[in-house]
Amino acid sequence: MESGRREFLGKWAAAAGIGTLPLPPREPHQKHHTHPSPDGGTNTASGPQTSDSGRAGHERFMWLAIEQARNNPEWPFGAVIVDSRTGEVLAGGVNSGADSPVLHGEIVAMNDYVRRHGNQGWTRTTLYTTGEPCPMCMSAMAWADLRRVVWASSIEEIRRTGIGQIALPAQEVAARARSFYHPELMLGGVLADHTRRLFEQAQQLRDRHTDTSPVGAPS
Question: pTM for the full model?
Fold first, then answer.
């Protein structure tokens, strides 16, 4: 049974084009995480949900974002985008800031999504990311109308590991865009204990790199 699950997930990851992924914890799969209102619609009148009964399902996909993050151990910002209804992995990415300052993990994943599926269908997706989206990334999601965002470590937690962050919470960015953007789910802290260790290890790697660099060499 376990080998069958591993084979299935391997094919699933290959179809999404995001490489070999770890076997997520054995948890019940949540196919749908919206919060229906009494009239059958989605209840967003009171703002985005900040908690969700499908946390086990969120952890399942956050493990995939963590695996993406491991591809850049010094800057472990990884993200995946999944179909909110079926759980299909649609895109993934990791921070590529060495190539361009705008290539945060979320932006790389969004670019990958567009390349594979076109600039459409965002409202049916959920983005999972190892770090709370910065104002740039959250703004991109607002412009795309990507309504479901789940992250692990908060901006404040990331700042404590020596990575500079703009101190503006993702929820505040979303609130400033409320004239046109109405997120359904903004959930933080999913597997934050695991990503905290990733960011702490990343700080150690960066410090070690700085200590061993020749005088005058770029860090």
Answer: 0.76
pLDDT digits (tens, 9 = 90+) for 79-106: 999 999 999 999 999 999 999 999 999 9
In the chain, the largest separation of any two C-alpha atoms, in whole Å, equals 66
The one-character DSSP state at 147 is: -
Give the strand pairing for 89-94 and 78-83.
antiparallel
Q: What share of the chain is helix, strand, coil (3-state, %, to 5)?
A: 40, 15, 45
CA 208/CA 99 separation, integer angstroms: 22
Q: At what angle do helices 135-144 and 105-117 cross, to 10 degrees?
A: 20
Tell me whether residue 114 is exposed, middle or buried, using C-beta atoms within 10 angstroms of its C-beta: 0 to 12, 13 to 18, 19 or more. Answer: middle
Determine the Cα–Cα distance for residues 5 and 64; give it in Å rounded to an integer: 15
Q: Could you tell me if 105 and 93 are in contact, meaning their C-beta atoms sit under 8 angstroms apart?
A: yes
- Centre a 10 Å sphere on the Cβ of residue 67 and count the other Cβ atoms it contains: 21
